[in-house]
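Supplementary Text 2. Reproducibility record for the structural model of the 366-residue chain.

All settings were left at their defaults, and a single model was retained for analysis rather than an ensemble. We include the record here because the model underlies the residue-level annotations in Supplementary Table 4.
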Amino acid sequence: MRTVFKTSYDADIRLFKHNAQAFWYLLLFAIAIGLPFLVNDFLIGEATLVLIWAICGMGLMILVGQTGQASLGHAAFMAIGAYSNVLYQEHFSMPFLLSFPLSGLTAGVAGALIALPTTRLHGIYLAIATLAISVLAEDLIVILEPITGGVAGLFAPDIQIFGFTFNRYGNPVELYWLVLAITFVIVYLYRNLLRSPLGRSFAAVRDSEVSAKAMGVNVARTKMLAFAVSCTITGLGGALMGHFATVFTHETFNLIMSITLLLIIVVGGLGTIHGAFFGAIVFVLLPLLISFTRDGIASLTGASSITIPGLEQGIFGAILIGFILFEPMGIYGRWFKIRTYFELFPFYRKDMFRRQKSYLKTERTR
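Retained model, structure tokens:
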């Protein structure tokens, strides 16, 4: 069992709890760097997609996992990031190094504006409001055809940085390096945000808005900032998704993508950076696993491979139901329980992680 002795308040806001945790983070980063030398270009493309989904998941995680605000409309902000990134490059001749962060800021401003009238909503009412935003975003993309291309969509040009070209099909390894670097920066900023006063305000609002007000937290302002930061990161992920897809339309960032993004962080584990990555890995690798399994069964039985419509969505939905019923803390929560068991053995208690069924009396007025 590892015991951390805290001798000052600085120990509570360290970037890593102890040296062993820093070692594991560095080891994972080293594995990510060495991945292109171990697998082929196809799997590198899948790894790039995992990182992009993880970025989008971290954006939604700030709002749902850290601040406790439900959202079913984050695909709209992914669309804002993707469309604004391409439009900045085509209509204003901006380089990627300028259009990319501006696309994230554009999505963040849009999120802050939407948060202004919705900061007083809670639970299912907030989810319905964000759901309506996702539906309206698809219609607006079609209506603004002179700008967005309507149903024809937009073509994302190759990324050009200092004379180097990044393309999913032409040089997937270089695109992987770029997305990995962006992911590293976002993870670093995310961890610093959590240990900042703003990050602690997010957690206070999530746990109890009444108690947060009593401690002097401006709840409306905190929710708006959570929306802004969340939508900024999601917009950056959407911009990368646009370049990864090459061609995207209003159907690319639809309601299903919003729901998928929420499923990713729930299955991965709410409230943790690890959860965004675990959920992204499951979502990206699940279709590959289904395809390989189907082809393997077909080769063993001698029958032709049969494609069942909606099979992937059905399996992913079943996985979600299973986690909600048996492991609400997600994949990372299960790993945390296993690790705690071995750290505390033989003093581990079975009910240590039992879900709290009661709630604060101050929250009954919602």
